[in-house]
Design a protein that fits this description.
- The complex is a heterodimer of chains A (713) and B (296).
- Chain A is α/β, with parallel strands linked by helices and 713 residues long.
- In chain A, strands 6, 7, 8, 11, 14, 15, 16, 17 and 18 form a 9-stranded mixed β-sheet that branches. In chain A, strands 1-2-3 form a 3-stranded mixed β-sheet, with helices on one face. Chain A has a two-stranded parallel sheet with strand order 4-5.
- In chain A, helix 8 (188-204) packs parallel to helix 10 (233-246), helix 10 crosses helix 11 (283-295) and helix 26 packs antiparallel against helix 27.
- Chain A is globular, with a radius of gyration of 26 Å.
- Chain B has 296 residues and is an alpha/beta fold.
- Helices cover 31% and strands 22% of the residues of chain B.
- Chain B has helices at residues 58-62, 87-91, 106-113, 117-120, 137-149, 167-173, 186-193, 198-209, 228-239, 257-262, 277-288, and strands at 2-11, 19-24, 46-48, 68-71, 74-77, 97-99, 102-104, 125-129, 153-158, 176-180, 214-220, 244-251, 293-294.
- A 9-stranded mixed β-sheet of chain B has the order 7-1-2-8-9-10-11-12-13. A two-stranded antiparallel ribbon of chain B has the order 3-6. In chain B, strands 4-5 form a two-stranded antiparallel sheet.
- The chains are: A alpha/beta (713), B alpha/beta (296).
- The interface between A and B is medium-sized, with 30 and 26 residues.
Chain lengths: 713, 296
Amino acid sequence: MHFPTASATLRPVRLKDTTRKWAYASLHGKYGDDAVKNACVHLDDITDFEKLSDLEKYDKAIQSIAAKAPIRICPKEKICGSATLGDAIYHVVPAKYKGEYFCGSVSHLTLRYDKVLKQGLDAYAQDISKRLEDRLLTASQVEFLHSLENVIDSIRVWHSRYLTATKTARPDLYKLLLQVPFSPARNFHEALQSLWFIFAFARLCGNWPGIGRIDWLLGDYLHRDLQEGLLNISEARELLASFFIKGCEWIQSNTPTGSGDAQHYQNIVLAGIDESEAEVTNEVTFLTLDIVEELAISDFPITVRLNKITPLALKEKIARVMRHGGGIVAVYNEDLILQSLENLGYSKKEARSFANDGCWEVQIPGKTDFAYMPFDALQIFNQVIGLTEENIPVFNSAEEIYSAFCRSLHDTIQTLYRSNVEEAYVCKNSGWQARGKVLPSSVVSLFEDGCIVHARSYFDCGPTYVVRSPHMGGAPDVANSLYAIDNLVFKEKKITFADLVQTLKNNWEGNELLRLYTKNHYVYYGNDAEEGDAWHTRLLNDFADMVDSFPAQNKSPVKFIPGVSTFGRQIEWLPSRCATAFGYKKGEILSGNDSPVPGTDLFGATATLKSYCKADLVRQSCGAALDIKIFPESLNGDNGITALVAFMDGFLSLGGFFMQLDAVDVQTLLAAQKNPQKYKTLSVRVSGWNARFVTLNKEWQDMIIERSSQNLH
Amino acid sequence: MLPVTKIQRFCTKDGPGIRTTVFLKGCPPHCVWCHNPETQPQAAPFFYCDNLCIRCGICAEVCSAHVHQIIGAEHFLDRTACRQCMKCTQACPTGALEKCSSWLSAQEILHEVKKDAAFYGTTGGVTFSGGEPTVHAEKLTMLLDLLRSDNIHTAVETCGYFDADLLPALVRATDLFLWDIKDTNDRRHLANTGVSHHRILCNLQAADTLGAKTILRCILLKTINLNTEHLQEVARIYNRLKHCEGVELIPYHTLGASKNVQLGQAEHAHKDWIPSREDMDKATAFLKQYVPVLSS
């Protein structure tokens, strides 16, 4: 029973052997394989199904899922409820009519769980009844509120099935379910069960919500239990381990390869300050890290909110988890993000509650309808310089090129604004709402603040906030291209602009010496060199200016905010990209997120981090992600921990936003590519998510290897 | 000006925390296992990496001393003719030719090492290594003083083979010495490094008397010094010191061997000298009975 590590330091053993064995089985696909056998429910026996409205069809599906989905109770589990329908793994409502899915599901959000824990689900039923008394509600609003009631009724059905299943066989679980989730949780164990039950039901219905601030949600319950002697810390760790092991229930033993199997956006956010500015870090923070450190569970990507008062012990703990590899823990710069959120108009109190969308895009959890719109800045740039056009335009300086590029970039943002903000919502008598038809989403709407009050669903301006974010990909590629053109064409005059573009059209054929010169003689973005970084800094700041120039707060409820990412799209974009002016041929892997182009980062992790931090990242309010790879050997010993802590401190003081750090040994990745059976649970950080390396297809694996092989110190 | 072969950022093995390590050229001993042969005084001025060379001939065109000749698929080098103009390394499009060292002023070195000041905190800092940095004692001391005035922690990795008169100034200016104990058997020491260890050990003791903080760094080579006698002697040395923080055991590796080839020297890769993981664990466990062994 081996939990993989990239470190020379062995993973600690704190959990019971039986718990570890259960985790091992779950990580190797025991429950995921079961789920696939029971893929979905079938709605063919429902009379006149086709005549029902979309929302009515959805309601029927939720009822059916609650009534028919297989019940699973694992022998070692200490909380119950399982998302047992395999099609939910593929982001749909796992229900078919005449062999077809009829409804998609929801992701990129974190639900509001604290209210369920504190007030119980019955309180929601009362809120809805009260809201239905409003005679000014439209028919569609009434229909929506009834749909929310249907969700509660369905959870009740599912809950009663678990009550029946546990009454004799597992009285410990039965006792928990008698209280939660319908009544308030009274202790840590009940709170954990309540949280899991709601999360699992949302997942059972095909949704992929994040968990958010688990230590903030559960910390007080545990603290009280520990003080009163109801639990000791080892018992609490065992209970919490159930949550994490059950969270692996979608892992299959032979997952079809693609962009990785652990990307169900079940992100966890730890630490940071609460609404009253007190540091949250508590026993649950450390227990969570204990568990992933021991069991190498990467299915809950964790992001820790670091700030000036983060305890040293927590930073050291993060470092200990980080150096095992797998990219399980990433970090936020809390102070910078709070400032960014306040700049967007959130109150201080609201800003302090931030988590993310289940990946790393910052949001106010349980209150936000969020979506991002990715685009490839490099393709815009290539079009501007005539690389994808028949005619090559005339430019007399890099400044002229940049100005033309900015005009096109602005046009792209404007198009996104029009389609996703201006034309997407309309203000009528009953308030702001979506202009077109929206996907039914009552399960997640129930747990989003604002949906009951507005009597509108998640996609229909129900939540308190609606956020749409254009996400720029390829920023480092554009910056490097500008830097190379400026030097090659305008400063050193080694080639004319037209000839360079023609050379790029020819994929550098016939000009290999110049290509090598370009590749090897300039110091590009990611090396803490002023000239190489300057275009990148400027591009990010100008992008923020452009996005900010579109009206949001006054005329529409939608916040339109900038972000920088690729989330692995550098692979998807490859076929439509061309050779680059910085010496890369068509088809070569380029920059991921806001990280340097693989192969151009020459001076190690600190230089890369400094380059990234030169942009005013407070203005990238949705986030700008930096991926850092470190050779595991350099993190050995006590000084490895000291160095990682110092690296995190540097990230904070220099003004980073979000950093995902992975300890990767390229030789191990190559071995895993060659012999996947031997490395089935080896995890890597892909982007905002983790994946078992062997579940990535060849292109994705190559990308990870490529970006991991460069200049690790 | 100082001859610098490399300034490497984000070093985690050259002292506490995150460090920037400055490698200086020049070294009195000549260890047969040397990992940084480019720091030897007589080392060639440039690396040539055959794998990266595409035989474009540009180096031959720019070199008036005719060091480079491309004949067919071969790149011939006559390093003895080199006048160190370095035009070839500047012109090479692939990076196959790379300058081994540069003369940098104290200000230039300071500018480079301060780039990572945000990561040093109270633990990390700057380490001078080599070669043997004390070869440049006067300028080194000046740099150490300047760094200290900026509250940057300093470390000097030394083989300990230098004039004892240098000690007071060095000890005053340096926060930590990483002191190499290459071997405790003087016959072997002389044979493998070209110098006796008496001076090294005397300097170490004298530095300790002056209050120098030290960490003893001991390279272990199988069939040479990987034995209990050597480890016991290391423990004895440690126990004679008042300010030594512990001992680091460093396994010999062959990662530097390719540098020999790139400098036009015979390859010095002795695979039989590489200790196994088990060897290192045993040596660590043995030494730990007597002294603090720091993880490296």
